[in-house]
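Two proteins were folded this term; both appear here.
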Amino acid sequence: MRIDGWRYYNHAAVPTTAPHEEPNIGPIEDKSIWNLDGSPLLARWTTEFDCGHETNWWYVIKDTPFDIATLKAKRRYEINKGIKNFNVAPIDPTDYKEELYNIQVAAYSAYPVKYRPSVNKEAFFADLENWKRFFIVIGAFDRESTELSGYALLQRRSEKYLSFSVLKTNPLQEKNAVNAALVEGVLRHFNGFLTGGGYICDGARSINHETAFQDYLEKYFGFRKAYCKLHIAYNPKLKWIIKLIYPIRKILLKFDGIRLIHQINAILRMEEMVRENNG
C-alpha cells in the first residue's frame, strides 16, 4: 500500500517531506502506516526543524556558500590537495557501470562486519537507470590515471532542499584527499543554489553507522547541525518487545558486534532519546 508523504526505508516508515516541512502524521494516528509497502516495524519523523537550541537529534546541513578562505591552513591544504589530485564533474552513471560498482564494493569492504552491506552486481547495474532519473551524480576522476575514484549522489527534493544522499570513494584514494575533492566539487556545483537560499542536507544524526563523516563536513566545509525533535511510533508487533527489552539496553550493548543486536541497539538508542525529549 502506498501512503502519500511516506516511504519505506530500512524497516521503517519515514516522511518524504523535506526536514523543514512538517510531515502528515494522520497515517500514524489512524494506524494505516503499518500497511505501507514493506511492512515497517516503526515510523520515525521529526518536528521543530532548526529550532535554535540544542536537542539530542539533528540534521547536518549546509545553507551558506562555501568559502575556503575561512578555514584553518591545515584544512585548506587538505582540500587543495584533493582539488589538485582529482577532477570533479557531473557524470552519466550508465557510462561508468563497472567503475561505480567497484567503488561501491571497495567502500563497503571498509565497513564493520556488523552492518556491512552486500552488493548484487546485476541489481546494482539495474538501479543505475534510477540514478540517472532521480539523482545528480558527480564523479571524482584521478587527474593522472583518469580513473573514477569516487562518486556522490544528490537529489533535488524541493526548491529549497537538496539531499546529499550518498558519497562513496575507493579507500585507497583517501590518502589523496578524494573525499575533500568530491565535497568541494559538490559545493562548487551547487554554489548558486546555496546563494539563493537553498540548503544541502547530509541526513540526520547517525545512530546505526559508526562514522565521522558528518563531523568532517562541519569542520572542513562549514556544515552545521540543525536541531529538531525526534518522534517514533512502533508497529504493534514490535511495541511490546521494545517495552520488554528497554530495561536491559545496557546489557545488549555488550553484544553490539552481532548484526541483529546492533540493529536493536540503534532502535533502543532512539527510544532513549525520545524519552529524554518527553522528560
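Next, the second protein.
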Amino acid sequence: MAMTNSTTHRIAAFVALLLCVSSAVLADPPPGYYDSVDATDSTTLRTTLHAVIDDHQRFPYTSGSTDTWDILNLADEDPNDSGNILDVYRNASYPKISGGVRDYNREHTWPKSYGFPDNTSDNYPYTDCHMLFLCNGSYNSSRGNNPFRNCHAGCSERTTLENNG
C-alpha cells in the first residue's frame, strides 16, 4: 500500500522530532537514573530495569475524557484544514468528529484478531496510538483482518485519493 500524505506527515514530524532531540538522546542519562537496576542475574535485571522504564500512560480506546479519538484527531489532522483529518487509506479529508460515527473510524495496523482482541485496562497494544490510524470506514471493513501487503491476482486494490482532488 502506498504511503498517504497523512502517513508521510507523521513520518516527517517524527524525523523532525528525532533531529531536535538527537543531542539529548546521545547524552548520558540523568545522574542516578539506573541506580536501582540490579544486574545480579537476568531475571532480576529485567525486573528492576522494567521498574525504571515502565511509566507509560494508557489512554482509553473510547471515553468521556481524553481517549484515542482525541489523540488521533490531532495526529491525523489535515495540514490544509485543522478542522479535518486525513484518512490513512483514501487520503481523503473528513471533518473532525468525536467517536468516528460518520465518515471514518480507527484502524489497527496490527489486526486485533491477531493478538489483542480485548480492550482491557492492562492491554496497552490495543490502544497504542502509534498503531492506530483514522480511516474510511468502508475501506477498513473491507480489509478485515488481512495483513498489509501488495494485492495479487484474485484481489482488488482500493484506490487512494490525492489530497484536495
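Residues 16-24 have pLDDT under 50 and may be disordered. The first strand starts at residue 77 and ends at 78. These notes refer to the second protein only.
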